[in-house]
Write a structure and sequence with these properties.
Distance between the termini: 41 Å
Protein name: Cellobiose phosphorylase
GO molecular function: carbohydrate binding; glycosyltransferase activity
CATH architecture of the domain at 4-309: Distorted Sandwich
Largest sheet: 10 strands, antiparallel
Domain Glycosyl hydrolase 94 supersandwich: 11-277
CATH topology of the domain at 4-309: Beta-galactosidase, Chain A, domain 5
Radius of gyration: 28 Å
Strand content: 25-35%
Domain Glycosyl hydrolase 94 catalytic: 307-734
Mean pLDDT: 94
Keywords: Glycosyltransferase, Transferase
Shape: globular
Number of helices: 20
CATH superfamily of the domain at 4-309: Glycoside hydrolase, family 65, N-terminal domain
Structural class: alpha+beta
């Protein structure tokens, strides 16, 4: 069942009913100011950091679902309604929501009044713009009351939701004309505030939630709206809000627009203000002056659309598959940008308070983002490196505003260090910018101990090299990519569990997955060393990689597939010896991607085992058989019911690893089959089962052991976005940046006779035609560059042209 349709020309998804299976959301913002907005106008806004600089509130556990947002109430006689249906849930005569790239347009109509909410965050401004257009489509005059509403958060979202004994006494606002200033904590911080304004003279306002809604009313029936009059309330403590009241008279056929702006403002750093409670209104005045007319808003909106149209020309594909084109050219790259901005911090499944930026997550997100805005990727790599420890280990997460590690989560995830190599190498392959390796980067944000980035990569590699267990495999630590596989847990008494992280503390668990990473990214690090003239170091790295390869082929091989790990007592996990959890997806994908077992048939066997034992209609499950009882020695993984999350759920994040692995052994048909199963655009017709948005990937789909197989969860913020774009753009379509140039190495279904790629690489636009009339799955027979035949399949970077034509013949 569909709940909408794609409009490819406009680059929008059009939702046709407000009653979607879950709230279907969009992200507004691309740099510092961000908002989440659902198809019914729910969501929240923040500046840079969803925890520390939250501007508006949102209630995750509230019912009905999706409570809190930017709401516009229209009172037409005795009828009160919203263009997005929520929160009044008044039945509408018509409804649509158009989620575009960085903007959302919601249109509803009731009793001959059409209301359109256009919401976006401009490219270079710290604000969310909401333009409301009211139109009278009837034959009689209309006299309406329009009420805006949003609820301010008291900046620190976690403290705001817990520390009521203090917070209920701190809220402060000021109203001047049509502008509401949210200045809570200004007397404490003296440098920032929020502003909520409209470009018309208002007929009333409210800043007290109690006065606007009423003590026992809700968002759906606020007292001020029902009465048709604002209370002109000033919040003193309690819960500050922003609400404007405008009386609107419309003749038949007439329309009026109202421009609302929610902004973040800071005092200029060189200006001091002595009065602690008198805010400097200059930043607000300068911001709001840019959004007083429709012409100004139109120009800002066009700038946003031009921004995205420009970014998406970097990589485009033209195939006979409309859905594939739509995914690659629009939605997958858009999601890559969002995950780069958010990591895993702020979504409708992540509260914005618990995680911050993930070290591993952000490094992986770079893989799908680096081609879009390389300069921002460079900045992010340096931010990530600054949080690393001197021994090469890392925090698992850090706060984006402070760049300090998340002490609550800590470290001990032993795959994290190697991802820094992955992200940095991806950046240099894309840009050719080796100078990043000379950038001085701190340890744990302490710049007194800063060393060049290259030394951080060296420490990342050496951390894994020097932390190995009894099978010569890397220590898993607290966990590896699978956060819930905690193999250093053991129990001495019922209800007690303990963790060990080092040889001096007792038995240690090992990870075959990290071993596969070590081979893959160790080889990339060796390539980097050779490219920078460090040939002796490269030779040592390759020797260590070969040693790890041998360990995987030995203790890491179970006969038909790769072992997942060894627990703290050297018992195999993900082995035929186990009663449950005999085989896991992760090592099969990562080890084969690294080339392990390709020369001896083990790679083919492992992938065949995945197809036979893990594959389902909706994708490849993480492990089988599912755990049916709790295993304390395995940690969190068996705490989930069978078929959910890490316990035999379908993790969309690592399904692409299998697709990549299939291309390594030349299986283009199988690679594309795996790719399609978890791709949301191919699942649009089963929206009532899948539930999450059909235009973006979700983190997890319920596996075959679950109550509802195929049900998606945790959409938007997932490493799936970057990995699926990498899989399709580089491994399947085969356009691979390398240190030496652009390698063209497709691995496609043999039914695909060809396609065209346009790829901007190091400032040059490459127009690539792939000819597969031979109907092969892999293999480049010949390649011409501007009509000249070249040896091999690597295009040497061009410096004297802006456009280059490339023709590749497969065979």
């Amino acid at each position: 069942m569909k709940f909408g349709h794609f409009d490819d020309a406009a680059k929008e998804y059009v939702i046709e009913t407000p009653r979607t299976p879950l709230p279907w959301i969009n992200y507004l913002g691309s740099q510092d100011f961000f908002s989440l907005i659902s198809n019914t106008a729910g969501g929240y806004s923040f500046y840079k950091d969803a925890k520390l600089m939250r501007i508006t509130r949102y209630r995750y556990n509230n019912c009905p679902l999706d409570a809190g947002g930017r709401y516009y109430y229209i009172k037409d006689g005795d009828t009160v309604w919203n263009p997005g249906w929520q929160p009044t849930q008044t039945e509408l005569d018509s409804y649509s929501c158009r989620h575009g790239l960085g903007y959302t347009i919601i249109t509803g109509s009731k009793n001959n009044i059409e209301a359109t909410l256009q919401a976006f965050v401009p490219v270079n401004d710290k604000c969310e713009v909401n333009r409301i257009i009211l139109k009278n489509n009837g034959t009689e005059d209309k006299h309406l009351d329009l009420f805006s509403f949003l609820e301010f958060c008291l900046w620190n979202a976690q403290d705001d939701s817990t520390n009521f004994q203090r917070n209920f006494s701190t809220g402060e606002v000021e109203v001047i004309g049509s502008t509401i200033y949210h200045k809570t904590e200004y007397r404490e911080r003296r440098n920032h505030y929020a502003v909520y304004s409209v470009n018309k003279k208002i007929d009333g306002f409210d800043t007290s939630r109690h006065k606007f809604i009423g003590m026992y009313n809700g968002f759906h029936n606020p007292e001020a709206v029902l009465a048709g009059e604002s209370r002109n309330s000033i919040a003193r403590g309690w819960q500050p809000i922003g609400s404007h009241h405008l009386k609107v008279d419309l003749k038949p056929g007439e329309s009026q627009s109202f421009i609302f702006v929610l902004g973040y403002c800071e005092n200029p750093k060189d200006e001091k203000w002595e009065a602690p409670n008198v805010i400097n209104k200059k930043p607000a005045n300068e911001l709001l002056a840019q959004f007083q007319t429709d012409e100004q808003v139109d120009a800002k909106f066009q700038e946003l659309k031009d921004y995205w149209n420009g970014l998406l020309t970097t990589y485009t594909v033209h195939t006979e598959d409309e859905k594939l084109n739509r995914l690659v050219n629009i939605w997958n790259q858009y999601q890559c940008m969002v995950t780069f901005n958010m990591s895993r911090s702020a979504s409708y499944f992540e509260s914005g308070m618990g995680r911050g930026m993930g070290f591993r997550d952000s490094c992986q997100d770079l893989l799908g983002f680096v081609h879009l805005i390389p300069a921002r990727a460079r900045e992010r790599i340096i931010d990530i490196a600054n949080t690393q420890f001197e021994d090469g280990s890392t925090y698992h997460q850090y706060q984006p505003l402070t760049k300090k590690g998340n002490a609550d989560i800590g470290g001990g995830f032993n795959d994290d260090p190697l991802w820094l190599i992955a992200g940095t190498c991806a950046y240099i392959r894309e840009t050719g910018d080796f100078s990043i390796l000379d950038e001085m980067c701190a340890f744990d944000s302490d710049f007194s101990k800063a060393v060049p980035l290259m030394d951080h990569l060296r420490r990342s590699f050496n951390y894994t090299l020097t932390h190995r267990g009894p099978h010569n495999l890397p220590l898993i630590g607290r966990a590896d990519w699978n956060d819930c596989l905690n193999l250093n847990c053991f129990s001495e008494e019922p209800g007690e569990s303990f963790q060990t992280f080092g040889p001096s503390e007792g038995p240690v668990a090992e990870s075959v997955f990290i071993a596969g990473m070590f081979v893959k990214y160790g080889n990339e690090y060796a390539d980097l060393c050779e490219a920078t003239g460090l040939n002796d170091e490269a030779a040592k790295v390759r020797a260590a990689v070969a040693d790890m390869n041998e360990a995987i082929n030995g203790a890491g091989w179970d006969g038909e597939w790769f072992v997942r790990a060894y627990d703290a007592y050297s018992n195999p996990i993900g082995s035929d010896k186990n009663e449950e959890g005999k085989i896991y997806i992760e090592p099969q994908g990562m080890c084969v991607m690294a080339g392990v077992g390709v020369d001896n048939g083990k790679a083919e066997k492992a992938l065949k085992s995945v197809e036979e034992r893990l594959d389902t209609k909706f994708g490849i499950v993480l492990n089988q058989p599912a755990y049916t009882k709790y295993h304390v020695e395995l940690g969190e993984i068996s705490s989930y019911p069978p078929g959910y999350k890490e316990n035999a759920g379908i993790f969309c994040h690592n399904n692409p690893w299998i697709a990549c692995a299939e291309t390594v052994v030349g299986h283009g048909n199988r690679a594309f089959e795996v790719f399609k199963k978890t791709c949301p655009i191919y699942l649009e017709d089963i929206g009532e089962i899948h539930k999450t948005e059909p235009y973006v990937y979700c983190q997890m789909v319920a596996g075959r052991d679950a109550e509802i197989p195929g049900e998606g969860k945790n959409s938007w913020l997932t490493g799936t976005a970057a990995w699926t774009f990498t899989t399709m753009s580089q491994y399947i379509l085969g356009c691979q940046p390398t240190f030496a140039g652009l390698c063209i190495n497709p691995c496609i279904p043999d039914t695909l006779e060809g396609y065209k790629l346009d790829r901007t690489f190091r400032g040059v636009r490459y127009h690539i035609t792939i000819d597969n009339k031979a109907h092969v799955q892999k293999g480049v027979k010949s390649m011409t560059v501007d009509g000249v035949a070249v040896e091999g399949n690597v295009i040497t970077p061009v410096t004297d042209k802006t456009d280059v034509d490339v023709v590749v013949t497969m065979g």
